[in-house]
Specification:
mainly alpha; single chain; 150 residues; elongated
Length: 150
């Protein structure tokens, strides 16, 4: 799960929050897609059908269901922000067993290593956000810098 939060001061906080929400939606989805591709790319086809991967390495692709089921879900929050979830659905429920291990199955993590591998590229997605081009900041600038006529 990607969590993106921020705190702002009281001066023009509402406009800044709106601007940040507006400008961060695209980089947030780009970051989620980077992680999704990294997760899917970490799973390799088994050398022979039915051969499991070594414990501690990403699971081998047997049928392709788990790899195809890695999905992105974007939910709008009550405050107008977004939360993005990356994972698998009920169709590939066994992904959690691969990620964390089970009673008779050693862990074969593939989500956490992909997150760590892509961390630098994810941070790069949020650099140089064009905050000044958002509607909220344009409204703020038009109000704050109005020329006072005598």
């Amino acid at each position: 799960m990607i969590t993106y939060s921020f705190k702002l001061g009281k001066i023009h906080g509402r406009e800044l929050k709106e601007g940040l929400r507006e400008v961060s939606q695209r980089p947030l989805m780009r970051a989620a897609k980077l992680i999704q591709r990294a997760i899917q790319g970490s799973m390799r086809k088994a050398p022979q059908p039915g051969v499991p991967s070594r414990p501690g390495t990403p699971p081998h692709v047997q049928t392709g269901t788990l790899r195809a089921d890695i999905s992105i879900l974007r939910r709008k929050q009550a405050d107008g922000g977004y939360t993005v979830y990356i994972g698998f659905t009920k169709k590939a429920w066994y992904g959690i067993v691969h990620e964390r291990g089970g009673r008779f199955h050693p862990a074969r993590p593939f989500i956490a290593p992909a997150w760590k591998k892509e961390a630098r590229r994810i941070k790069h997605q949020f650099r140089n956000l064009p905050l000044a081009q958002t509607a909220a900041i344009r409204r703020l600038n038009s109000r704050s810098f109005r020329r006072q006529t005598p």
